C-alpha cells in the first residue's frame, strides 16, 4: 500500500470529525470518499496532509510513518492535496502560481515541467502573465491541479474538485482525473458528484458522521441503497 | 462583478492621478513662488521622507504578510542609534581610526536586527506555535508594544535619557544651482531608492519573494505548496531589523544626534506615511513616506515648528476620509496585499 491509514481520529474542539478510520490506497489506485456534508471527508484529507493535527491513529505513506510531519514535509515525500475551493494565490500571476507549485524542488527540470503544464492546459499558457484572479472557475481548478502536479506527487488528494463547475467542465475534469490515474498517479477523491466519482474510481468509501459505514468496489456502490441513505440521512431506516 | 471591479479600479486610478498631479502642481507652484528657499525645503523634505519611507516599508511588510502591526519598529530604530553611539564612546573601535563612526553604525544595525529576531521568537512565533492561526491579532501587537517599552527603558537605564552627539565626518556640502545639498542627504535618498528597488526585486523575482507573497495571501496555501511558514517568517523580521537599522543610521548621519526617544517620532510619522499611501502596499509606503517628509518641512517653513503634527495628521484624516484605503490601498483590508 502507498498510503495506509490506521484508526485515524480527528477532533476540532468538541467535534469528533473522523472516528477510528482505517483504509489504504495502493500505488495505482483511484479511491473516492463519499458522504454528505459534515461526514468528515474534508477533515480526513486535511489530517492526511497535516493541515489539521490528528488526535489518534497513524498515517503511513510509502512505508514511512508521517503522522507527525508538517504539510511541506509530506509534500516532499510526494503526498499532495488540492484543497476545496481551488485555493490559488490570486495576487500572483498564473506563471508565479506554477513556480510556487515547484517550490519544494531544486532540480533543473522545473522550467520544462511548467511548459508541460502549459501544453496540457493551453488556457493557462495563454494567460501566463496575468493575475490568477482573472481566471474563470474552471481555469482556476486547472491551475490548482497543474500547480500540485509540479511537486511531482505520487498520491494526489482532491477535495470536491467539481464544486461550482458547469456540467461540461465537470466532464472535462473527470477526464483529467482519469488520465492522471492512467499516467500512474494514485488518487484519493472526495466528491459530492457521486455518480461521476464512482465512474472514475475503482473503490469507494462512504463516510457518515466520521465513520466509514460502507466500502466496496465502485460498480457495486453505484446502485447501493445504503449509499443513498448516507446522503439523505437515517430517516429511511 | 468584473464590471464593478473595473469601475472601482478606474476610480482608484483617477483618485491617484488627482493626488499625484495636485502634489506636482503644489511643488511646482511652491518652487515658482518661493524660489531657492522652497527648493531647499523640498530637498530637506525628500531627505526626511527617505528615512520615513524606509521605516514605513518595514511597517507595511509585516502588516502585508502577517497582518501584524509591529510596534517594536521605533525601538529597533532607536537601538541602532544608541548602540552605535555607545560603541563609539566605549573606545572599542579606536583601532578603525576615522572610519569608526561607520563601524559603530554597522554594529548598531546588527544589534537591531538581532533584537528584531528576538521579537519574532517571543511575540509572533510563540503565540502562533501555541495557538495557531486562531491567535487574536491583538496579542502579538500588545506584546510587541511591551518590547518597545522594555527596549527603550533598558537603553535609558544603561545610558541615561539625554540625547547624545554622534560625530559625523561630513563637512563639505555640494552646491548645485545655488542650492546647498549635504552629502548625508544624498546618501539617504540614494540608499532609500536602492533599498526599495532591491526589495521590489526580491518580492517579484525570487523564490523567497513569491513565498512571502503567497503567505501574505494565505499561509495555508503556502504550506500546501511546500513553504515551511515558520521558517520564512523570521526572514521578514530580519528584513524589518535591517530596514530600521539602515533608516536609523541615515538619520544619525544626517542629524548627528541620538536619544532613547529618537524612534518615537519617526515611528508615528512612518505609520502616518504608510496609512496615507495605503496599508500593506510597498509603493504606498514609499509615496506616503515622501509626502509626510515634504509636508513636515513645508509646514515648519510656512507655519512654524508647532504646526507639524497638526498638518500631518490633519492631512492623513482628509486622505482617509476621501480615500479610506489610502492612495495605493487594495480592495481587501487585512492581509495579502504586497
Measured on Cα atoms, how large is the radius of gyration of chain B? 20 Å
Query: Which fold name is given in CATH as the topology of chain B?
Result: ABC transporter involved in vitamin B12 uptake, BtuC
Structural class by helix and strand composition of chain B = mainly alpha
What is the helix content of chain B? over 70%
The description of the largest β-sheet of chain A is: 6 strands, mixed
Q: Which assembly state applies to the chains in this document?
A: heterodimer
CATH class of the domain at 3-87 and 153-232 in chain A: Alpha Beta
User: How much helical structure, as a percent, in the residues of chain A?
Assistant: 25-40%
Poorly predicted residue ranges of chain B: 1-5, 331-336
Overall average residue pLDDT of chain B? 83
Number of helices of chain A: 10
Question: If classified by CATH, what would the architecture of the domain at 3-87 and 153-232 in chain A be?
Answer: 3-Layer(aba) Sandwich
Ends distance of chain A: 35 Å
CATH superfamily annotation of the domain at 3-87 and 153-232 in chain A: P-loop containing nucleotide triphosphate hydrolases
**What is the N-to-C succession of helices and strands of chain B?**
HHHHHEEEHHHHEHHH
* Distance between the amino and carboxyl termini of chain B: 23 Å
C-alpha geometry of chain B: globular
Tally of DSSP helical segments of chain B: 12
What is the count of β-strands of chain A? 10
How are the elements arranged and paired?
The complex is a heterodimer of chains A (237) and B (338).
Chain A: E1 3-12, E2 15-25, E3 30-34, H1 41-49, E4 56-61, E5 64-65, H2 71-76, E6 79-82, H3 94-101, H4 110-120, H5 122-126, H6 137-149, E7 155-159, H7 167-182, E8 186-190, H8 194-200, E9 203-208, E10 211-217, H9 218-221, H10 225-232
Parallel strand pairs in A: 3-8, 3-9, 6-7, 7-8
Antiparallel strand pairs in A: 1-2, 1-4, 4-5, 9-10
Helix pairs in contact in A: 3-6
Chain B: H1 2-34, H2 36-66, H3 73-90, H4 100-131, H5 138-159, E1 164-165, E2 173-176, E3 179-182, H6 183-205, H7 207-217, H8 219-224, H9 229-255, E4 257-258, H10 262-277, H11 282-303, H12 308-322
Antiparallel strand pairs in B: 1-4, 2-3
Amino acid at each position: 500500500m502507498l498510503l495506509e491509514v490506521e484508526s485515524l481520529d480527528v477532533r476540532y474542539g468538541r467535534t469528533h470529525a473522523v472516528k477510528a478510520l482505517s483504509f489504504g490506497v495502493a500505488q495505482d489506485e483511484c479511491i473516492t470518499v463519499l458522504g454528505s456534508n459534515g461526514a468528515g471527508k474534508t477533515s480526513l484529507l486535511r489530517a492526511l496532509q497535516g493541515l489539521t493535527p490528528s488526535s489518534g491513529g497513524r498515517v503511513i505513506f510509502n512505508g514511512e510513518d508521517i503522522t507527525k510531519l508538517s504539510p511541506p514535509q509530506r509534500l516532499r515525500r510526494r503526498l499532495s492535496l488540492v484543497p476545496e475551493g481551488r485555493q490559488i494565490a490570486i495576487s500572483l500571476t498564473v506563471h508565479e502560481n506554477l513556480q510556487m507549485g515547484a517550490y519544494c524542488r531544486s532540480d533543473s527540470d522545473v522550467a520544462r515541467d511548467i511548459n508541460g503544464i502549459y501544453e496540457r492546459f493551453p488556457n493557462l499558457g495563454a494567460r501566463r502573465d496575468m493575475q490568477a484572479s482573472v481566471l474563470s472557475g474552471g481555469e482556476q481548478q486547472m491551475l490548482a491541479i497543474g500547480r500540485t502536479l509540479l511537486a511531482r506527487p505520487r498520491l494526489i488528494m482532491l477535495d470536491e474538485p467539481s464544486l461550482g463547475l458547469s456540467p461540461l467542465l465537470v466532464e472535462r475534469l473527470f477526464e483529467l482525473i482519469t488520465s492522471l490515474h492512467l499516467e500512474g498517479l494514485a488518487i484519493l477523491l472526495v466528491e459530492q458528484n457521486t455518480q461521476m466519482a464512482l465512474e472514475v474510481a475503482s473503490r469507494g468509501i462512504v463516510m457518515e458522521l466520521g465513520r466509514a459505514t460502507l466500502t466496496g468496489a465502485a460498480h457495486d456502490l453505484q446502485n447501493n441503497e445504503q449509499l443513498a441513505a448516507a446522503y439523505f440521512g437515517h430517516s429511511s431506516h | 462583478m468584473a464590471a464593478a471591479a473595473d469601475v472601482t479600479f478606474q476610480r482608484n486610478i483617477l483618485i491617484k492621478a488627482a493626488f499625484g498631479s495636485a502634489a506636482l502642481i503644489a511643488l511646482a507652484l511652491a518652487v515658482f513662488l518661493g524660489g531657492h528657499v522652497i527648493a531647499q525645503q523640498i530637498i530637506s523634505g525628500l531627505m526626511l521622507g527617505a528615512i520615513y519611507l524606509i521605516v514605513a516599508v518595514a511597517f507595511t511588510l509585516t502588516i502585508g504578510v502577517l497582518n501584524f502591526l509591529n510596534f517594536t519598529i521605533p525601538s529597533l530604530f532607536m537601538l541602532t542609534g544608541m548602540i552605535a553611539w555607545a560603541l563609539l564612546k566605549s573606545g572599542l573601535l579606536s583601532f578603525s581610526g576615522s572610519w569608526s563612526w561607520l563601524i559603530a553604525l554597522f554594529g548598531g544595525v546588527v544589534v537591531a536586527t538581532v533584537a528584531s529576531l528576538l521579537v519574532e521568537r517571543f511575540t509572533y512565533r510563540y503565540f502562533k506555535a501555541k495557538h495557531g492561526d486562531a491567535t487574536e491579532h491583538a496579542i502579538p501587537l500588545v506584546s510587541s508594544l511591551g518590547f518597545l517599552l522594555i527596549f527603550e527603558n533598558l537603553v535609558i537605564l544603561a545610558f541615561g535619557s539625554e540625547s547624545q552627539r554622534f560625530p559625523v565626518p561630513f563637512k563639505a556640502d555640494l552646491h548645485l544651482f545655488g542650492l546647498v545639498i549635504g552629502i548625508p542627504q544624498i546618501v539617504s535618498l540614494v540608499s532609500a531608492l536602492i533599498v526599495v528597488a532591491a526589495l521590489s526585486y526580491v518580492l517579484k523575482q525570487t523564490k523567497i519573494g513569491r513565498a512571502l507573497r503567497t503567505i501574505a495571501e494565505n499561509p495555508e496555501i503556502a504550506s500546501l505548496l511546500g513553504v515551511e511558514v515558520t521558517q520564512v517568517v523570521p526572514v521578514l523580521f530580519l528584513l524589518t531589523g535591517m530596514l530600521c537599522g539602515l533608516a536609523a543610521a541615515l538619520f544619525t548621519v544626517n542629524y548627528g544626534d541620538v536619544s532613547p526617544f529618537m524612534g518615537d517620532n519617526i515611528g508615528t510619522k512612518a505609520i502616518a506615511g504608510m496609512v496615507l499611501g495605503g496599508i500593506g502596499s510597498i509603493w504606498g509606503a514609499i509615496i506616503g513616506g515622501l509626502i509626510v517628509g515634504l509636508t513636515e518641512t513645508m509646514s515648519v517653513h510656512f507655519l512654524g515648528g508647532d504646526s507639524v503634527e497638526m498638518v500631518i495628521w490633519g492631512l492623513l484624516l482628509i486622505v482617509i476620509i476621501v480615500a479610506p484605503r489610502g492612495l495605493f490601498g487594495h480592495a481587501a483590508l487585512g492581509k495579502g496585499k504586497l
